[in-house]
Write a structure and sequence with these properties.
The protein is α/β, with parallel strands linked by helices. It has helices at residues 2-13, 80-93, 107-110, 135-146, 155-168, 171-178, 181-189, and strands at residues 18-32, 52-63, 70-74, 97-103, 120-124.
């Protein structure tokens, strides 16, 4: 019986052109800025703009360490409904591929009401281990590239800047940030 179940699962996956491993996470981008170190000429006083306006937008993102393919969506809040919107877009972008999506155990990732598209299978990271998710480093790099010592006059400006930074980042940049040694070993097995 067990062998038959394994065969059925393998046959189910044969209809896809490729199996793609992706890591997913959410981050908030907004108008609260934190000053960061910067270069100034000798004997000059550095100034870095800063603001504390509590206005932000969550971003859902997934990156494939194998080839640097990515998918990002800016939504209104983090919940099961918006997670489904994100998953629907991700499934559509890679419609002929089976996506092995590594996610954390946020409540909206594990909710029973969450509808997961047929070409996506979830794999959960252990609880409280953000250091195992390479997308955390993607968020850090995006903040460094476009949000360091910046002040935004509106949340629309923040979203526009986010899209601008993402457009400037190549697949090779995403790959270099996310393709850690242990992930490359997993990719060799797929």
């Amino acid at each position: 019986m067990l062998d038959k179940n394994r065969r059925n699962k393998r046959n189910k996956h044969k209809k896809y052109k490729r199996i793609r491993l992706m890591f997913q996470d959410e981050a908030s981008f907004g108008r609260i800025s934190q000053p960061a170190s910067c270069w100034v000429p000798p004997k000059c006083q550095p100034t870095a703009p800063s603001q504390r306006i509590r206005e932000y937008k969550p971003v859902y993102g997934a990156v494939s360490p194998d080839d640097g393919e990515s998918y990002f969506v800016v939504l209104e809040k983090c919940n099961s409904e918006n997670m489904e919107i994100f998953l629907g877009g991700l499934a559509k972008k890679f419609s002929d591929e089976l996506i092995l999506l590594v996610v954390d155990q946020a409540s909206y990732h594990t909710a029973k009401i969450l509808v997961i598209p047929k070409n996506i299978e979830f794999f959960y990271l252990p609880p409280r281990t953000p250091e195992m998710n390479p997308v955390e480093m993607v968020w850090r790099d995006i903040r460094k590239r476009g949000f360091k010592n910046k002040v935004f006059s509106s949340i629309a400006e923040v979203v526009a800047k986010f899209h601008e930074v993402i457009e400037e980042m190549s697949k090779e940049v995403f790959r270099s940030i996310t393709c850690w040694n242990w992930i490359s070993q997993i990719l060799a097995l797929i």
